Amino acid sequence: MAVTINQPQIFENSILFTWSSDLGGTPDKFWVYLNGTQILANVPNTEYLAFSDPSINLIIEVFDSLSHTPTEIPGGNMTLCWYQRPGVSEWLVQEYQSGTWETVTYLADSDDWFYGYFTRFLEDGQVHRFRVSPVSGGSYAGDPLEFSSLMVRHPDPPNVAYTYNGATPKTLTVAAVT
Amino acid sequence: MAAADLIPYNTGATAEGSPNADEGRSLGGYRAGSCLESLGHTLDAPIRGIVILHVAGLNGAGNGLLTAVSNNSISWAAPGESPGTAVTINNGETKVIKSGTGQKYIQVSRTTADNLAGECTVTLSEIFHNVVAFEPATAGGSTDFRVFIIKNIGAANMAGIKIWIDPAAVTLSMALDVVDGSGYVRDQSIPGENNDPGFSFTTPTTEGGALAFDLSAGSSRAVWLKRVIPGTGSSIGTLQKIHVKEPLDSESLEIFGRYTLQDPALDRFESYKGSDAPIDYSTPWETFSSLPHTSAALAVSQTHKVVVRKRNAWNYLSQNIREYEITLDGSGNLVSVAPTAPLETSVEALPGLSIRAISRYDYDADGTNQADQWLVYSKIGSAPVPGVDTPAVVTMSKADGIAPLAHVLTGYAAGDVVQVIVQVRRSSDTKDSTNNTPYSATAVETISEPSPGCSGVSRISEPDNLVIWTHDSNNYLEVDRAREVLRIVLDGAAVAGMGRGRTFTAAGGFREWNLSSNSTQSADIEYVTGTPNKIKIGVGNGTKTTVAEIDANGLVKIGTAQEQATWPKWGWAGGANYTDYNSTPDALEFSLDLIRTAFDFQKYDQGGGIWNSRLRANRFREGQL
């Protein structure tokens, strides 16, 4: 497959992907995946306009046959899950940051049997710790559940600036933007 | 008697059955109440009262189905399988529920006497960094140890249980140890995870060469694991798998997990370059470990495109494609790239011998080459000459990718034909866009137009009128808080409005598309290809009316409703006309939360004494939900 990445269209954040098949004959159906999730299947399209923040990876895969498997793209979030406990009025979700447990949110107990909390997009290459505590009447109502995971995913695009050096030799300096 | 009665547990508890889900503390001591899980699970539509305690690894990743077959029984279907035999479970009981085949089972408990009901989808996914997989690793050849316990929870004794390591788990070896009657195995937590407990570790990779042991009902056996981390390499999920098989079973239990392996040498930046060619992403141009970084020499007389990406220690590479582009002349001087031309330029006459120039510049598309000023050249009777005539220089206002221009030129005499050229300029190096197309309008003293109409457009001076956005003193948006109406005021007159629960309505000289009568519409929406492409709607009996156009650039232009002179309504608006489609849908409904739109409004003389106006949507774009 020949996939062409075109530079931003009207918006800086809009990227046009165009493609053609390199199979013999004239394949006219394509399968398209965005960050590992199928977005088009068995379609004749030969382009896709994607929108993305420059600080976020955008991974497009295009196949011209069903024999291909898309790359597994790791997500950047954790889902915390726990079962109901009796006598709980709300659940305190905390994240361990800079040596202390910081409050993320309070979730009201909705009498559901099973709870799930989808975390924020987590930094790559770090161990992230969360805990969920049952709360009743403003006091802890039991031991917290603790969750911990190393986040490994595609690193964020580096935020850099380029400077051309016109002296000899002609070079570029790449520096971090802070 | 079956391997489904063999449950793996972590160690490291302070007392038998106490919790310890931390693989790093599974170094001996008491058997934990926490199972050694190979698969994590999330539930959709859980069955109230049922808690999943353990999922056998053999189930595999995917979606399984837990079903309440009756008030007191449930069945389990592993991913891709049919349900097994339903199992009765009473309040307070713990049961193993098997799927349709083999050793695919889950262990559940029931914690309520309420009737069981419903179907629960159980999504299973592989677990990283459990006791079999160990902690995240860094390449370097170090050795770690862990120990877990297999317990026979059944009522029958088992003999000849076999345990071996999957051939794929080449970094593992193992040894068996005893567990005393209190559920205790020797504790190595003090010497630590890197201390060899002194066993003869072996690596049996077939059932024939497996280690074997017996387990009487309720008894346990400890399995020590030794992991030798590779000296080099990286991985986002190295598989560690152990098979446990009871002789009478046709297939083994699988206990597995994955660990990540990082190689610090991979943690770096990589630059990719294309010189007079697209960027070659197959091989980095340069790699460097820190910033700032100065590149190798660039060739002169070429256009260079460069992208810097980040690779992490697990060999993942960022996928950014925003390019930095420079063109060098033969001496290595930068060749300046002009900003692109503005779009949708037009001019119009305003009352009071003024001319307004309107345009739009999509600055984002120019990236680092974008302009920051408007140049408005004007001349009476002939086209101005950029670079010769002096332009009005207007600082751009940029937002959401659009820089709009609405610049008023004044001081003309009636009948003057004014020609205007609009360009954009990057002030840092005085680089202008190259377009030279003139647009013209004739200056006039006054422009007559009907008074505003109804549906909130009719403007009554009230203290509750609140200006919420101002272009200048005669052009603004206001809210009539008493009537809950948003009004558009152009040149001092209210020309359009939208009230709570009403349609968007243009008044007087502010309308574009005509509804031929009150009830001659067909009930559908039609897209008509042409020049321009049109969107038509109808509501009843065959006639469709154009409500929007899509031009060759993909820009959507939306019309507004025209007043029907024969349909007076709402006396408070002075008996003015109103707009009605006489059926549903009676309004185009949209939410500014869903669609971000840049509108502009234009007036024009349709002829025949009818003044019309045009509501143009310059741009639709996705918004953040």
Q: What does it look like?
A:
The complex is a heterodimer of chains A (178) and B (625). Chain A is mostly beta strands and 178 residues long. Chain A folds into two domains: 2-63; 79-150, Immunoglobulin-like. In chain A, 0% of the residues lie in helices and 50% in strands. Chain A is built from no helices and 15 strands. Chain B is mainly β. In chain B, β36 (493-499) and β37 (504-506) form a beta hairpin. Chain B contains no helices and 45 strands. Helices cover 0% and strands 44% of the residues of chain B. The chains are: A mainly beta (178), B mainly beta (625). At the A-B interface, β7, β14 and β15 of A face β3, β22, β23 and β45 of B. β15 of chain A pairs antiparallel with β22 (293-294) of chain B.
Would you summarize the structure shown here?
The complex is a heterodimer of chains A (about 180) and B (about 625). Chain A contains no helices and 15 strands.
What is the overall shape of chain A?
flat
Radius of gyration of chain B: 38 Å
Q: How far is the N terminus from the C terminus of chain A?
A: 38 Å
Oligomer: heterodimer
User: What is the radius of gyration of chain A computed over CA atoms, rounded to a whole number of angstroms?
Assistant: 23 Å
Total of DSSP H or I helical runs spanning 4+ residues of chain B? 0
Strand content of chain A: over 45%
- Structural class by secondary-structure content of chain A: mainly beta
How many strands, what sense, and barrel or not for the largest sheet of chain A? Answer: 5 strands, antiparallel
Percent range of helical residues of chain A? under 10%
Number of domains of chain B: 5
**Strands of the biggest beta sheet of chain B: in what spatial order?**
38-39-40-41-45-44
Mean pLDDT of chain A: 86
Shape-level CATH architecture of the largest domain in chain A: Sandwich
Helix content of chain B: under 10%
Shape of chain B: elongated
